[in-house]
Amino acid sequence: MHKLTSTMHKTPPIKNTKGEGEDSELGIEHQVRLSNVLTLYSKGLSQSDIAKKLDINQSTVSRDLKYLKIESRKQLELNMKEEVPFEFQVYATGVMQVIKKLWERIEAEDPNITIKDRNYALSLLIQSYSKRPEMLVGGPHSGMNAIKHVSLIHDSERTGYDLFYRYLKKDPGEEI
């Protein structure tokens, strides 16, 4: 009996399929339950309150939250590896286009462009140039420092201490 109950409480294995109907990675009922657990947890409900509300065991809620945390980390790391570099490139290209247009405006021999307009363009250029180092390496409080985020994820997995989530919750001036 003990073997049966211990296997019943394990998180079901994830099938490696392409998301076709009920054969997708998780069954529809499990996906709905995970969504409900996450929604209620995000509203501040305790595990026991979630269990009562969904009419499931508290241990199921605990396993679902653990599963969701693991999958969230995987998704975050994947985004850091795949999405962030592309978004970084889009941002960098956009900034360079803005800088190019500002220089065109400053250097234009158009009499309709006033000194005030040229000074404003120079002010915007200074702001753009001052943001470039932050964009490239991420400042101490920059949300753009993807390398730091991925490093924190790896550190937390290696040490078992959740530095990454502690970092996300900290005040901007606070040191870890």
Number of separate helices: 7
Shape: elongated
Topology order in helix (H) and strand (E) letters? HHHHHHH
The tally of beta strands, per DSSP, is: 0
Number of domains: 1
Low-confidence stretches: 1-23
Largest beta-sheet details: none
What is Rg?
A: 25 Å
Mean pLDDT: 75
Strand residue percentage: under 5%
Structural class: mainly alpha
Helix fraction bin? over 70%
Can you walk me through this structure?
The chain has 176 residues and is mainly α. It has one domain (2-137). The protein contains 7 helices and no strands. It has helices at residues 2-8, 28-42, 47-54, 58-107, 115-137, 146-159, 163-169. Helix 4 (58-107) runs antiparallel to helix 6 (146-159). The relative contact order is 0.06.
Secondary structure layout:
Elements: H1 2-8, H2 28-42, H3 47-54, H4 58-107, H5 115-137, H6 146-159, H7 163-169
List its traits.
176 residues; elongated; disordered N terminus
Briefly characterize the structure.
Helix content is 70%, strand content 0%.
